[in-house]
Specification:
heterodimer; A: 301 residues; mainly alpha; 0% strand; B: alpha/beta; Rossmann fold; Alpha-Beta Plaits; 2 domains; 4-stranded antiparallel sheet; elongated
């Protein structure tokens, strides 16, 4: 029998109500195995790439290539953090797409969208809570990946027989890495939001994952063709995602072509301002369309 | 017992209108899923919502909960006309829509915790209480994905009770339950209604609806074709089955009685459509004319027969 019969309806502010819903979203994400698997993959990739580069640096091969000097510099402690950001802008983007698309698409796949909306104060709050929790989780994942990258830098420095020097750890260096942390988050956002939006459009995780990852890889190929075509077509990639991502990740100032992001875009790199504006516009468009569609559309079986 | 400031409603008694739909319609392109649907659900009432597959029951529930926007008509919940997202009203409603839907990777407890957080103001003790009520407390820490269908149903019902709702919407609540579990839920539904609540029960198990519902609406192709108290619905077409020694002579005698609406021969029996209170008069009329009556049975129509008759013989949803 029901014993506690009095239902107290407290007056909630927008922020406190949202905070409660973000808590619910975090509980879902924290308890989901996929979250931890994706984080493990990100850390695993950083560990693996560092070890592979260390192995490559030990092999003396004829020819030019990227150059042993570049690889050695990359394995140094100073490059460990920016190199981690670089990998996050490429591999991390793919993982972020999977995370956001599956978080939203899963609600449709498991049909939990209906009870979730009936239990939520508004559709707007539901989607804001989801996006905030996903954003915070991506930021936490990035932080863990940076720590993993730095630890790997310590290991590869030791294994490479190099001396430990922390003289690079100046205030300006830390500030630069702080800025790059947010820049990396900024370049991941349009892709993550594209995955999120397509999960809403397709009412499933798969359309989000497929479209998001498809854009990451296909855009690089299309860009190559467009650049080869010349004329005004060659200018189009500057208004797509990857070329602008490359413009921002280039601020990592890594040696050779280890700048990361952009999926190997072979085109004229746009200016920084242009890149920030274009990526921001894409993020806003994906975000606004997600909100519009989610609020407007019927939730049917 | 007092719930949300209300009082316990005695079985059979009905209170204020909790849900009212007025001319509710919904079209998906050219398909008219629901047409001009008007129903009324009162506190203390168990309302059976019946119809064949695709009749528009789930669409109606979706419109009541604000998940689907009506093409025309309106929904009133707790006396207030609803428009758009209806949080104030939804806080007073617990619903299972079509089937229980939970996160498969979370335990039963965590699933309720997620819902409790979304709703707000739900203490942990309430989760324990509702799990206990549906006898799922001992399996609360197991992953939902590993639950049997019956356990999923129980968790679904538990989720509807989290906010002490005044209106409970249940869609096939005994689907997948074993006989003991079915009986438990069947016993629970009227109790819930009598605790100052109203229950809207969508079910294809007609005998179940017949046992627990006070009022029934039958919907076919989006149109309500019957909407009345269940006793009233079943009283239509009350039949009397008799066995006599001379069927031909008895038929002639009965044709002479004005209130015998129809006579049908079924094997060795005659089936008469008469007012239920006149069975004894049939017996007397036949005996007085020398016909021996060896059997006389009132054949009350079941909800199933009424349903099949009204829906044109299609099975329930």
């Amino acid at each position: 029998m029901v014993t506690s019969n009095v239902s107290v309806v407290k007056k909630e502010t927008f922020v406190s109500g949202l905070g409660i819903m973000i808590g619910a979203e975090f509980l879902k994400l924290r308890k989901r195995q996929m979250t931890w698997v994706l984080l493990s993959i990100l850390v695993g990739i950083i560990v693996l790439v560092n070890l592979l580069l260390l192995a490559i640096s030990k092999v003396k091969t004829p020819g030019t290539g990227i150059g042993a000097g570049n690889i050695a510099a990359l394995l140094g402690l100073q490059s460990a953090v920016p190199f981690s950001f670089s990998m996050m802008a490429s591999f991390g983007t793919v993982l972020a797409i999977i995370l956001t698309a599956s978080s939203m698409g899963g609600e449709y796949n498991w049909k939990t969208i209906r009870p979730a909306l009936v239990s939520s104060e508004s559709r707007f709050k539901f989607i804001v809570a989801k996006l905030v929790s996903l954003g915070v989780l991506i930021l936490i994942g990035m932080l863990i990946a940076v720590i993993a990258g730095f630890i790997m830098g310590l290991i590869t420095t030791g294994l490479g027989g190099n001396a430990y020097s922390f003289s690079f750890l100046t205030g300006s260096y830390v500030w630069m890495q702080f800025l790059q942390y947010w820049r990396t988050f900024y370049v991941i956002m349009p892709f993550a939001l594209l995955g999120f939006m397509m999960a809403i459009v397709g009412r499933s995780a798969m359309p989000g994952i497929a479209t998001g990852i498809g854009v990451v890889f296909l855009e690089a190929i299309i860009t190559t063709f467009m650049t080869a075509a010349g004329g005004w077509i060659a200018k189009v990639p500057a208004y797509l995602l990857n070329a602008n991502v490359t413009a921002i990740t280039a601020l990592n100032k890594l040696p050779g072509r280890f700048g990361g992001g952009g999926g190997g875009t072979d085109t004229t790199i746009p200016s920084l301002t242009h890149a920030f504006v274009i990526l921001g516009l894409y993020s806003i468009i994906f975000l606004v369309f997600s909100f519009y569609l989610f609020r407007k559309r019927d939730v049917t079986g | 017992m007092t719930i949300n400031g209300g009082t316990q409603v005695a079985p059979g008694a009905q209170g204020d209108v909790i849900l009212r739909t007025i001319g509710l319609s919904k079209s998906f392109g050219k398909l008219e899923a629901v047409k001009n649907l008007s129903i009324e659900l009162r506190r203390g009432e168990v309302f059976g919502f019946l119809g064949p597959n695709g009749a528009g029951k789930s669409t109606t529930v979706g419109m009541i909960l604000g998940l689907i926007a009506p093409t025309a008509g309106s929904v009133e919940l707790f006396g207030v006309k609803q428009d758009g997202h209806r949080w104030a009203a939804l806080r007073r409603i617990g619903a299972i829509i079509e089937e229980p839907a939970f996160y498969p990777y979370l335990s039963g407890w965590d699933n309720l915790a997620v819902l409790a957080k979304s709703i707000g103001d739900i203490p942990k003790s309430k989760i324990t209480e509702v799990l206990e009520r549906v006898t799922l407390l001992d399996r609360a820490k197991d992953q939902y994905g590993h639950y049997s269908m019956g356990m999923k149903q129980r968790l679904g019902i538990a989720s509807t009770l989290l906010r002490d709702p005044e209106l409970i919407i249940l869609d096939e609540p005994t689907n997948g339950l074993d006989p003991a579990g079915t009986k438990e839920i069947r016993d629970l539904i009227p109790k819930l209604a009598h605790e100052s609540r109203a229950v809207l029960l969508c079910s294809h198990l007609l005998h179940e609806v017949e046992m627990v519902c006070d009022h029934v609406a039958i919907v076919k192709q989006g149109i309500v074709i019957a909407n009345s108290p269940i006793k009233e619905l079943l009283s239509h077409g009350n039949l009397l089955q008799i066995r006599v020694n001379d069927v031909e002579k008895a038929t002639i005698i009965l044709r002479g009685i004005s209130w015998v609406k129809s006579i049908k021969k079924e094997d060795d029996y005659l089936v008469l459509d008469i007012p239920s209170e006149r069975s004894a008069e049939v017996n007397m009329a036949l005996v007085q004319k020398g016909i021996m009556v060896s059997e006389l049975v009132n054949r009350t129509s079941s909800l199933e027969s009424v349903f099949l008759q009204l829906t044109g013989g299609t099975s329930g949803d």
